[in-house]
Amino acid sequence: MKLQNVILATESSDARWDLEVSDSVLQTKEATNADRGAPSSILLPPLCHPHIHLDKPYILTCNHAPSDRHPDYTDLAPQSGSFGEALASTSKAKERYTAEDLYLRGSQLLATSYQQGVTSMRAFVELDHVTGTLPLQAAIRLKQDFSHLVQVQICAFAQDPVFSTGHGEENRSTIEKALRDFDCSIDVLGSTPYVEQSEQDSVKNIDWAIRTAIEHGAHLDFHLDYNLDSSAGFLVEPVIRLLGEHQWTRRVDKSKTIVIGHCTHLTTLPSRKMLDMASSIRQQKLPLHFVGLPTSDLFMMGRPTEKQTTPHARPEAPFRQCIYTVRDWRSPAAGLLGGGLYQAGTVDDAELLFSCVSSRAREAIGLSNVGYEDLLKEGSEWRPLLLIENIKRMSVRPKPGYPDFEIPARQRVSIKDVVWDPPEVSLRSVVG
Ligand SMILES: [Zn+2]
């Protein structure tokens, strides 16, 4: 494989390079021979989805005639748009899952993600008394079928209560059995402590998840503190305490990480409490990461209830510890959204935002991370990278009777250009 006239993010954006790869090794890296006027491409680390639900995509937009194999979900379109309604509709949707439906929607998600430059992801699949292991079995097939394109980590996920309600015990035993029966295929245990009916059960859920993840040597992933209610309990605290009590760092392989997703409650914390939490995580050397999902989190934050006193709290503090997920970044305006949302307007911020959907996201979910700089040394083993192409001119419709109307296209030559103006999907591809 030859890549000509590329810009490398770690080198000057004036420099252009020709790379030659054979036998999966970068054989040569030389100053380009290409015409200086030709549009260059920029080569970046590939994207990583640290949080995506493999059984959920396209439920409301799958748009095909209902059949035994492919259910219709259109009646589940939101009416009130509330979080409670979303949870109730999700439960109804799960009752309709079929193997063919899960595989089709999952494969559409994986193919689309790959085309957008994603080469790794953590895929959540719900396991409970309704779904049984159906979503897990679809995920295992998808993981195998896409293994040459995307590295998929499967997260066995308890979206529903595992202690409260009449189904708690059954939900818990469904997950525990799946962890035993499909041990080799499951990488992560995920749970949602806030869905339990009391704070006491939420803490039991956290305790169970930590013990079970340790027992199976799995990564751990919580959906947690997804509210802006400053009077609600802050469940990150028992997570940190119980990880210590169960001696996570001593009993689990160093490569295994703990992720806390959403956690919008962080924005209600005073700085002092944030600093105390950060120092407690550092003191225990916990491999703990926060993953923000800006579009869904903003949706929640924009819906104050009577109890919420800070409905539009400023999400400033979490930014530097957070991963910003690629699902939210991929739409053209979302890079700018990140800049505005996190008041992140400098070039360094742009680079940090990009790392949140690439190298930092990989690190958060415990995937090996070869430094981009090391990867681009002659003799290094080649790993897939993201190529952003530039076009020379943009063509638009001319006035009637006028010749072609062409405008010189702006060139993306650095990470800030890619983050502040994400390219269309057709201008990105994974190479290698
Ligand atoms: Zn989620």
From TrEMBL:
Identify this protein by name: Cytosine deaminase
InterPro entries reported in the protein's UniProt record: Metal_Hydrolase (IPR032466), Metallo-hydrolase_Enzymes (IPR052349)
Organism of this sequence: Apiospora phragmitis
Taxonomic superkingdom: Eukaryota
